[in-house]
Design brief:
The complex is a heterodimer of chains A (744) and B (288). Chain A is mostly beta strands. Chain B is an alpha+beta fold and 288 residues long. Chain B has 3 helices and 17 strands. Classes of the chains: A mainly beta (744), B alpha+beta (288). Chains A and B meet through strand 51, strand 59, strand 60, helix 3 and helix 4 of A and strand 10, strand 11, strand 15, strand 16 and strand 17 of B. Strand 60 (697-699) of chain A pairs antiparallel with strand 10 of chain B, so a sheet runs across the interface.
C-alpha cells in the first residue's frame, strides 16, 4: 500500500483594516479556531496579503496611538471561515478608536462593584464590563450609549437604564445610580397564530431616551430586567425552519411592527409576535431533448408552490435557467424548440433547501393545441377572462391566465391525453357567478384546436331572516308565531315553498309559495308553530327552510327562531316484559323507570316495603344502590331498566310474593313521585309426561318386569311323575298278568 | 333400605358345580382388587436419593359406557432424579397405557408427562362402548444423567352399562329459573346430583343422570329425584316434592337339581325293584 501525504493548499487572503488613521501600524491576530487553521500574527497594514490554510479563524486587531490613551479595536472579533476549495478570500476589518474610559457608580450598601454588570450599547459598539472595570478603566469609543446596570443582592435585583456619554478623554457621565429594583420580564416568540416559536435570536428592547436592552432568546423564550413602570418597543429577527406539505424550508422571522412591552411594578410577561417569510430557494436547471445536442432554449412555467396557482415564468434562452422560488412543490411546463419543431414537457420539481442540485427538464416533440375560450351563450350570462389549466395524465399542470373569451392560446403538447379546464368570473342574470368549462384533449397526430365553451351554472338559492322577535317561550302543546322575510340570492328565478323542522311539529305558513327573482325584492311571511305536547326542553333547532318543487332545500331563515319550551318533571316505574330471575334463595326482579317529563331529572329509587320483606326473611335492595337508595340521572323521555334484588337472610323464610319500588324526582323536591308493586313469583319446574306415564325414563342392565314364581311343590311333584307312572304301569301290568293267570 | 349387591346370589348357588364356578367369578369381581391395591399404595415414601422410585395412580374404578374425561392422578417420586435433600434434580416422568379386551374408543391422555416434586399429574381416561375390565398401566421413570429407574403401577377400571335416569325439565312461564341442583337417591340413599343451568321461562332442559354399578340385587329398586332446597322458591309443579321411578332386577332361577336326581332315582329304583321281583318270580316258577 502506498501512502500519500496530503497537504492543505493555502488560500490567498487579503485583509483590509478600515478606520485606522493613515500611517498607523496595526497588529492583526488570526486565531485558529478549527483543526486545520493556523494562527498568525501580523503587524503593519492597513492592508495585509497572506496565505492561510482553510479553516475557521477569529480575526482581531490592536493599534495604539500616542502613549496608549487611544487604541483602535474592532467592535467584536471577526469570525470567518475559509472553506475548502476556496481560491481567494478577501476580508475587511473595521476598527474603532477607543479610549481608556472610566465612570462612576452609586451603589446600594449591599452591592459591591465587582458584582455589578454594566453594559454599554450603541449601534456601533457593545461593551459589557463589571463594576470594578467600569470605575477603574476600560476601552470604549467616545460617543453616546445606553448603559444598563444590573446587580443582585439576595433576592433583590437592582437595575438602572440610562443614557451615558463617553467623552473624548474617556470620562463617562453621568454617574450610574443603582438605587431601585428592576422588574423581571419574560416572554416568548410566537407566530401569527400564537404558537410558540422555538428559535434562538436576540431581542432588543428600545425604551425612552432612547435606551436599548438586548436579551438573548433561547428556544423562543427570553428574559430581561427592565425598569418598572416603563414601556419598551420590541424588535427581533431570526431565521428558523418550517415544515410544509412537501418538506422543510427556511423562514425569516421578524417581529411585528409596533409591538411594545409594558413593564409594571412586578414580574411581567411580554410576548413578541413574529411574522415569517419563507426564504426563497434558487432553482437551477436546464432544458434538454432526446436527439438534440446540448441544451434547448425555451421557457419554463412553474405553477406553485402547491397548492398555490401562482405562475412563475422564467426564460431559458440558452437552455438553462435560474430562478428564486418560494419553497414548495411545483408543476412544471417547459416548452421550446421553435415554431418549426416545437418541444414541450410536463414535470414536477421540489424547490427546497434539501433538494439536490440542478434539475433537467426533458422536452419531447409536440403538436400544437390552440385552446380558445368561448363566452357563455345562455341568455343573461357573461364571462370575463378565463384561467386555462392543462393537466397531463400524471396530474402535472400548466396554467394560462387571462384568456379572454373569443381569444386563444397555443399550447405545445406532447402525445397524450390531457384534461383542459377553464374558469372565469362571470354573471348570470346580473349575479356574480363562476363560469367553467372542461374537456379532454387527445394529442395523437397533427395540430388541433380546442374550444372551451364557458357556462355559468344556475344557482338556486334564497336566504331568509326573522322580522321582529327572534325567540319565544311556550308550554308544550302551545303555539308561537314568527315573521320572516326571504329573498333570492342565487342567479336564477326560483319558486320556493317554506317548510319547517322538526317534522313532528306543526308549521302553518301564511304564504305557501314564493316566486323570487335574483336581486329582486324580498317577500315576507308568517309562520305559526305548534309545539306538540311532551316536547322536550332540549328539543332540536327550529328550522324554517325553503324548498324547490322537487324538495331540494335551497335556503333557510338564518338564524332560525328560538323556541323555548317550558319544562316539567314526571316519573313512572313499572314492571317490564322480562320475567324475574328466581333462585332457591335469591330473586332478581327487573323493572323500568321512565322520565315522563320533558326535561332531564334526577330520580331516587327505593324499596318501599323493605321492612315487610325483612320480616319475611328477605334483604331487599336495588342493584347499584348506595345508602339504601339508587339515584339515576335521566334525560327527557329516557326509559331505564333497573333491578330489585331479594336475598334470603336465613334459610327460614317465607315467599316474598311482591316487592314495591318507589321513585321520587329530586329536582321537584319530592312533589313528583311514583311507585309500583312487582310480583315475585315462584320458579316452577315441570316434568311433563305423556299419556300419564312416568316422566322419568330409566334404562339400564337387567331391568325386567317381575315374574310370578312357580309353586314350590310343582317341580318336586313333576320330578317323581316318571317314577310314579312307571310304578302304575308295573302294578297295572302285574294286575293284568295276575288276572290272566287266574283265568287259566 | 340400602340396596344390596350381588353377593346374595351365593345363597342360591350352593350345591351346583356351575353355580360354584359362577359364584367364584362374581366374588372375585366384587372384592376390591387386592392385587391392584397392593401395587398402588396410598402413601408415598419420602423422596430421598437412596429411596427407590415409587409411583401410584388413583381415580375412579367404575365407569359407565362411553364415559369421557375421567380424571386420574398420577404421582411419582424417588429414584435418581431426587437428591439426598429431597430436591428434584433430574426428570420424573410417566408413560401410561391401557390394556383390556376391547380398546376401541379407549384412550388415556396424556400418555406421557413429567412429574414435579410430588405434584400429581392429571390424566384423562375415555372408555368405549363395551362392558369390560380395563387396566391402566403406568410406568414411572426417574432419571438423572445416566441413571434411570422405573416402576410399573396399575389401576383396574370396570366399564359397565349404567342405569340412566332421563327426564325433561320445563321451566314455568313466569320466571327465569336460576341454576339449581336436583339430587338423586337410589332406594333412599343419595347417589348423586345434577346441576341444572339457568332456564328461561318455558325453556326445557334434558335431565340425565348416569349411575354406574357392578350390579344391583334382585328385586325392586327406586330412583328418586328431589330438589336440593325443598323450601326455596324453586319448586316442582303441582306441589310435587319428588319424582321417582321403580324398576325390577330379576333374580337367578331356583335350583331343582336335587329333585331331578330324586325323580331319576325313584324311576330307576322302581324299575330295579320291578326287574328284581320279576326275575325272582321267574326263578320260583322254574323250581316248580
Amino acid at each position: 500500500m502506498t501512502t500519500f501525504d496530503l497537504t492543505l493548499r493555502a488560500v490567498p487572503v487579503d485583509l483590509t483594516v478600515v478606520g485606522l488613521p493613515s500611517g498607523t501600524p496595526i497588529r492583526v491576530n488570526f486565531t485558529a479556531e478549527s483543526p486545520t487553521a493556523v494562527s498568525r500574527n501580523l503587524t503593519g497594514g492597513p492592508t495585509f496579503s497572506l496565505s492561510l490554510p482553510p479553516g475557521v479563524y477569529g480575526v482581531g486587531a490592536w493599534a495604539v496611538i500616542g502613549n496608549g490613551t487611544r487604541v483602535y479595536l474592532p467592535a467584536t472579533i471577526l469570525n470567518t471561515t475559509i472553506p475548502f476549495g476556496a481560491v481567494h478570500t478577501t476580508l475587511t476589518l473595521i476598527v474603532i478608536a477607543q479610549v481608556n474610559s472610566t465612570g462612576k457608580l452609586s451603589l446600594p450598601a449591599a452591592v459591591a462593584a465587582a458584582n455589578v454588570t454594566v453594559a454599554l450599547s450603541s449601534p456601533l459598539l457593545f461593551v459589557s464590563v463589571n463594576g470594578t472595570a467600569y470605575t477603574k478603566g476600560f476601552h470604549a469609543a467616545p460617543g453616546t450609549y445606553t448603559a444598563s446596570v444590573k446587580a443582585t443582592a439576595g433576592s433583590l435585583v437592582y437595575e438602572n437604564l440610562t443614557r451615558v456619554t463617553v467623552s473624548a478623554s474617556g470620562v463617562i457621565s453621568p454617574t450610574l445610580v443603582l438605587n431601585r429594583a428592576g422588574v423581571s420580564v419574560t416572554g416568548t416568540l410566537t407566530d401569527p397564530k400564537g404558537t410558540a416559536l422555538s428559535i434562538n435570536t436576540t431581542v432588543t428592547f428600545v425604551g425612552p431616551g432612547p435606551t436599548r436592552v438586548i436579551s438573548n432568546a433561547v428556544g423562543g423564550t427570553f428574559s430581561a430586567v427592565l425598569p418598572p413602570n416603563s414601556t419598551f418597543q420590541e424588535f427581533a429577527n431570526a431565521t428558523g425552519s418550517s415544515t410544509g406539505p412537501n418538506g422543510s424550508y427556511f423562514v425569516q422571522w421578524s417581529g411585528e411592527a409596533g409591538q411594545t412591552c409594558v413593564v409594571g411594578n412586578s414580574a411581567s410577561q411580554c410576548a413578541l409576535a413574529m411574522r415569517g417569510v419563507p426564504v426563497g430557494v434558487w432553482l437551477n436547471g436546464s432544458l434538454t431533448s432526446p436527439g438534440v445536442p446540448g441544451n434547448v432554449s425555451g421557457t419554463v412555467r412553474l405553477l406553485g408552490p402547491y397548492p398555490s396557482n401562482n405562475v412563475t415564468t422564467v426564460s431559458a434562452a440558452n437552455g438553462s435557467f435560474s430562478v428564486l422560488l418560494s419553497p414548495g412543490a411545483y408543476s412544471v411546463y417547459a416548452s421550446g424548440g421553435g415554431g418549426s419543431e416545437p418541444l414541450a414537457g410536463f414535470s414536477s420539481v421540489l424547490a427546497l433547501p434539501s433538494a439536490a442540485g440542478p434539475v433537467s427538464f426533458v422536452l419531447s416533440p409536440t403538436w400544437i393545441d390552440t385552446i380558445s375560450v368561448a363566452a357563455p351563450n345562455a341568455t343573461g350570462a357573461t364571462a370575463g377572462p378565463a384561467t386555462v389549466v392543462v393537466t397531463d395524465p400524471f396530474g402535472q399542470r400548466a396554467l394560462f391566465a387571462q384568456v379572454s373569451p373569443g381569444s386563444s392560446v397555443p399550447v405545445s403538447l406532447p402525445l397524450g391525453t390531457y384534461s383542459v379546464t377553464a374558469q372565469a368570473n362571470g354573471t348570470l342574470n346580473g349575479v356574480a357567478s363562476v363560469a367553467t368549462a372542461r374537456t379532454t384533449v387527445v394529442v395523437a397526430h397533427g395540430n388541433l384546436g380546442t374550444v372551451l365553451y364557458l357556462t355559468v351554472p344556475a344557482v338556486s338559492a334564497v336566504t331568509g331572516s326573522l322580522v321582529g322577535p327572534t325567540g319565544a317561550t311556550v308550554t308544550a302543546g302551545g303555539v308561537v308565531t314568527f315573521s320572516f322575510s326571504v329573498r333570492d340570492v342565487g342567479n336564477v328565478p326560483v319558486s320556493v315553498t317554506p317548510v319547517g323542522s322538526p317534522k313532528f311539529w306543526s308549521f302553518n305558513f301564511t304564504t305557501t309559495s314564493y316566486n323570487l327573482t335574483p336581486g329582486g325584492p324580498s317577500a315576507s311571511g308568517e309562520v305559526r308553530i305548534g309545539v306538540p305536547t311532551g316536547t322536550d326542553v332540549d328539543h332540536g333547532s327550529v328550522l324554517l327552510q325553503f324548498a324547490l318543487s322537487n324538495g331540494t332545500v335551497v335556503g333557510a331563515v338564518v338564524p332560525g327562531p328560538r323556541v323555548n319550551v317550558v319544562g316539567y318533571y314526571g316519573v313512572a316505574v313499572g314492571s317490564t316484559a322480562t320475567a324475574p330471575t328466581v333462585g332457591a334463595e335469591a330473586v332478581v326482579v327487573p323493572f323500568y323507570v321512565a322520565d315522563t317529563g320533558n326535561q332531564g331529572e334526577t330520580v331516587r329509587l327505593t324499596v318501599a316495603d323493605a321492612a315487610r320483606l325483612a320480616a319475611l326473611g328477605w334483604n331487599a335492595t336495588l342493584e347499584g344502590a348506595a345508602g339504601g337508595y339508587l339515584t339515576v340521572a335521566m334525560s327527557a323521555g329516557a326509559n331505564l331498566s333497573e333491578h330489585a334484588n331479594l336475598t334470603a337472610l336465613t334459610s327460614a323464610f317465607a315467599a316474598p310474593l311482591s316487592i314495591t319500588v318507589a321513585a321520587t324526582v329530586l329536582n321537584a323536591s319530592g312533589a313528583v313521585q311514583s311507585s309500583t308493586t312487582l310480583a315475585v313469583p315462584l320458579a316452577v319446574v315441570k316434568l311433563p309426561s305423556t299419556n300419564g306415564q312416568n316422566p322419568l325414563k330409566l334404562t339400564g342392565p337387567s331391568i325386567a318386569a317381575p315374574s310370578a314364581p312357580l309353586p314350590v311343590w310343582l317341580v318336586p311333584l313333576l320330578s317323581f311323575v316318571p317314577a310314579i307312572a312307571l310304578a302304575v304301569v308295573i302294578v297295572t301290568y302285574r294286575w293284568w298278568r295276575t288276572r290272566r293267570w287266574t283265568r287259566r | 333400605m340400602a340396596h344390596s349387591e350381588v353377593d346374595a346370589t351365593l345363597n342360591r348357588t350352593l350345591g351346583s358345580v356351575a353355580g360354584v364356578a359362577l359364584l367364584l367369578v362374581l366374588f372375585l369381581s366384587a372384592v376390591p382388587f387386592p392385587s391392584a391395591a397392593a401395587a398402588t399404595g396410598r402413601s408415598l415414601p419420602a423422596a430421598i436419593a437412596s429411596s427407590p422410585v415409587t409411583g401410584n395412580i388413583s381415580g375412579p374404578t367404575l365407569l359407565a359406557l362411553r364415559a369421557t374425561g375421567a380424571v386420574y392422578e398420577i404421582r411419582g417420586s424417588g429414584g435418581p432424579a431426587y437428591a439426598a435433600n429431597g430436591s428434584l434434580v433430574g426428570n420424573v416422568t410417566y408413560h401410561a397405557t391401557v390394556t383390556g379386551p376391547n380398546l376401541t374408543g379407549v384412550s388415556f391422555t396424556p400418555e406421557e408427562a413429567a412429574l414435579f416434586n410430588n405434584s400429581p399429574d392429571r390424566g384423562s381416561l375415555d372408555v368405549g362402548n363395551t362392558s369390560e375390565v380395563l387396566t391402566i398401566v403406568v410406568e414411572v421413570s426417574s432419571a438423572y444423567k445416566t441413571e434411570n429407574q422405573s416402576i410399573n403401577v396399575t389401576w383396574t377400571v370396570h366399564v359397565v352399562q349404567p342405569y340412566i335416569v332421563r327426564a325433561t325439565l320445563v321451566a314455568g312461564p313466569n320466571a327465569t329459573v336460576s341454576p339449581f341442583t336436583v339430587l338423586v337417591d337410589l332406594d333412599g340413599v343419595l347417589v348423586g346430583n345434577v346441576s341444572i343451568p339457568t332456564l328461561l321461562p318455558n325453556e326445557s332442559y334434558q335431565f340425565s343422570y348416569s349411575y354406574a354399578t357392578l350390579g344391583l340385587s334382585p328385586g325392586e329398586h327406586t330412583f328418586t329425584l328431589y330438589l336440593q332446597d325443598p323450601h326455596g322458591l324453586v319448586v316442582f309443579a303441582g306441589g310435587a316434592t319428588i319424582y321417582s321411578v321403580t324398576f325390577n332386577v330379576p333374580g337367578a332361577s331356583p335350583n331343582y337339581t336335587l329333585w331331578y336326581v330324586a325323580g331319576a332315582v325313584a324311576f330307576f329304583g322302581t324299575t330295579f325293584i320291578f326287574v328284581t321281583r320279576l326275575a325272582a318270580r321267574r326263578r320260583g316258577q322254574g323250581r316248580r
